[in-house]
Design a protein that fits this description.
mainly alpha, about 95% helix, elongated
C-alpha cells in the first residue's frame, strides 16, 4: 500500500512538474545511501539500551518479580 501511494504521488508530481520528479528519482537513492550510517548507529544505540535495560532488570528477574 505504501509503495502504491508513493508511486501515485510520484506520478502526480511527474504530471505537474516533471523536472522535479526526475530530480527526486535521481536523488532518492543517493539520500538512501547517505542514511545507511545513521541507521547503523541507531541500531547500535538501540542494542546498547536494551543491554543496559536487561542488566538493570536482572536482579528483579532473578528474584522472581
Amino acid at each position: 500500500m505504501k509503495l502504491l501511494l508513493s508511486l501515485l504521488v510520484w506520478t502526480l508530481l511527474l504530471v505537474l512538474c516533471w523536472p522535479l520528479a526526475l530530480l527526486f528519482l535521481v536523488a532518492f537513492p543517493l539520500l538512501w545511501l547517505l542514511s545507511i550510517p545513521f541507521r547503523i548507529v541507531g541500531s547500535l544505540i538501540e542494542a546498547l539500551l536494551a543491554l543496559v535495560r536487561a542488566l538493570l532488570f536482572l536482579p528483579a528477574k532473578l528474584l522472581g518479580a
